[in-house]
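Reviewer 2 asked us to include a model.

Predict the structure of this chain.
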Amino acid sequence: MTSTIRRVALAAGVVAVAVLCAASASAATGTSVAPAAATPAAAGPPTEVAVYAAASLKDALGAIAPICEGRTGTKMIFNFGASNDLARQIVAADKADVFLSADEGWMDKVAEAGLLDADSRRSLLSNRLVVVVRSDSTLSIASGADLGSDAVKRLALANPDAVPAGRYAKAWLVQAGIWDKVRERVVPATDVRAALAAVEAGAVDAGIVYLTDAAIAKMVKVAWTVPENEGPKISYPIAAMKNSPHHDLARRVVDCLEGREAHDLFERFGFVVLDPAVGAPDPGVSRPEATSTRLR
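Predicted model (structure tokens):
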């Protein structure tokens, strides 16, 4: 026991002498002994940015998200749905960081509530309307007027009173002079993907959806494409939210979604890019003055 105590005391003495020697040497040379470097803290998880986006964008944004997450250091958390429902959620709770709507009208509703970063708003994308039928259908549609034939007993649309895809479809049918013939046959759906699902399930004879939705569906085919000069102007605006707790990151996500890589992927999924942002800076780099496609 005594020998153990002596060994401990001896070791402590050696350490004390070493410390005194180091201190003396430091004093003699005028240098200081630097403290040991702290172990760097582990990086935390990426900041979550809530992106509220129209249902028709689900596949395209799923492909683009990894690129923008890598460029902005964020984790994009998506809430997909009908633009009218998303706009109401934003106005009611203001939980979104970024809103990508399928029409300007619902973005206007959010702007009227004072929730948009107006300088970040721009019209990003466009789309086309198509008439789709099940892949095994023998129904022939050669014009809009054919939707008024006896062969089409049930026609799926996203809710034409509220959902952008349905409102666009109704506007086209009204302009073509056939709305009154088909309105009693319309089966309204919660959003454009639900209208597409009704066609795939055989619950309706035909449906009117976006070209981009038809392109990713496996059990439908395009029976007719609405000519550009006959269809309504389709516009997908995007904006960051003014009250976002991650406002700078939200702006960087918006910038990324209008960048070249996102542009190419949107086009691959069939969208028309309204603002190609050729030569757009990477997120975080100051952007040039607004182009004519940006809304004020």
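The chain has two domains: 47-126+235-273, 129-225. DSSP finds ten helices and eleven strands in the chain. We have added this to the supplementary material.
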